[in-house]
Amino acid sequence: MATEFANVISADSHVMEPTDIYWKALGSKYGDRTPRDIDQHLGVKGNFFFTGKQVLMRGEGDKTQAEKGLRPAGFLPEKRVEFQERAAVTAEVLYATGFLIMMQSQDTEALQASAQVFNDWLADFCAYDKKRLLGVGMVPTHDPAWAARELERVVKRGLIGACINLQGPAGGAPYRDRSYDPLWAKAEELDLPLTLHSITGRVPDPYHVYTQREREEVVGNLLALGFEIQAALANDFIFGTILDRFPRLRLICSEFEIAWIPRFLWFIDQVLVTRASRIALPPLKMKPSDYMKTRIWHGMIDDPFAAQVIQPVGPDRILWGSDFPHVRSIGLETQTRLKALFADLARPEQERIVGGNVAKLYRLN
């Protein structure tokens, strides 16, 4: 593999955690409430996984990587390091796969227990090579006090960040509510970046649908997934004053690409100019768009408009991620894809986006 960049760190990659870990650890306590493999759904026999809310059809999502012989890299750390060496990738920040969708469960007790099972599994996975395998824990926010305690636990287990629900879980208060303040305070205290990742919000996963009505709504839900981040940022973290009240909180938006950002920057500033007299808005310490440029990091994979929109937000806030080993991921061809993707940028900007920014964000040596 030709090496174009010496220090490539994917800010958004994934493990493919075994789905039986929850039943083995929790089945005797939670029974049918436990996330688990099932062999039929809606009268159809097959290979399914119950997330605590949705039912996923297993076996298709990693088909592409299986065909390339890369599937074991999703769940065997030695194979993951072998992949990184072949792809000339220095390190990867690793998120869950199935647990992303599990975050939408409203069975708080079973979900929290499952999160601890996953976080322990991921910590053990990353312990194989702590410089190359950089794990992000999954921390549901249904109970902010519990979530704050779990932040402490994932740090002790050696994980470098935490992925929380994209917005306050269904049925609960929005993130701007002061009941979440202990969580933001704990993240500041621990100097732990928090990630808002696609599919962890309230929009149902559109890739696993079974009824005719669900199929008819797939395209709309795919679009909704991509735009769900905007309301969370505007309502809660910016105009909800979270980022003002917690000035050291570091926030990452992951797997939303970045082409939407320029218009969003324009719009949130225009709210103050053209609508402030009609909408009750709190005073902010900065121009609304400045929070996007100084307090929030933005992840991208292969956005075809990247070169056109990086400058408005600033190259220091863009994080490239491969999404490996998911279907759309960038794999063994990482170096050549990165060269083409960022060809129009100056070399220092290229190096920051493909590795330098994530190293700085997570305080990597």
Verbal overview:
The structure is a single chain. With 365 residues, the protein is of the alpha/beta class. The protein has a single domain (9-14, 61-93, 127-361), classed as TIM Barrel. It is 43% helix and 15% strand. The protein has 15 helices and 11 strands. The protein has helices at residues 21-30, 63-67, 77-87, 98-102, 108-126, 144-156, 181-190, 212-216, 218-238, 242-245, 261-275, 288-294, 306-313, 334-341, 347-361; strands spanning 9-14, 36-41, 44-50, 55-57, 91-95, 133-138, 161-164, 194-197, 251-254, 296-300, 318-320. An 8-stranded parallel sheet has the order 1-5-6-7-8-9-10-11. Strands 2-3-4 form a 3-stranded antiparallel sheet. β6 (133-138), α6 and β7 form a beta-alpha-beta unit. α1 (21-30) packs antiparallel against α5 (108-126). The protein is globular, with a radius of gyration of 20 Å. It starts with 8 loop residues before the first strand and ends with a helix. The model has no long low-confidence stretch (mean pLDDT 93).
Summarize the SSE layout with pairings.
Elements lengths: L8 E6 L6 H10 L5 E6 L2 E7 L4 E3 L5 H5 L9 H11 L3 E5 L2 H5 L5 H19 L6 E6 L5 H13 L4 E4 L16 H10 L3 E4 L14 H5 L1 H21 L3 H4 L5 E4 L6 H15 L12 H7 L1 E5 L5 H8 L4 E3 L13 H8 L5 H15 L4
Parallel strand pairs: 1-5, 5-6, 6-7, 7-8, 8-9, 9-10, 10-11
Antiparallel strand pairs: 2-3, 3-4
Helix pairs in contact: 1-5, 6-7, 11-12
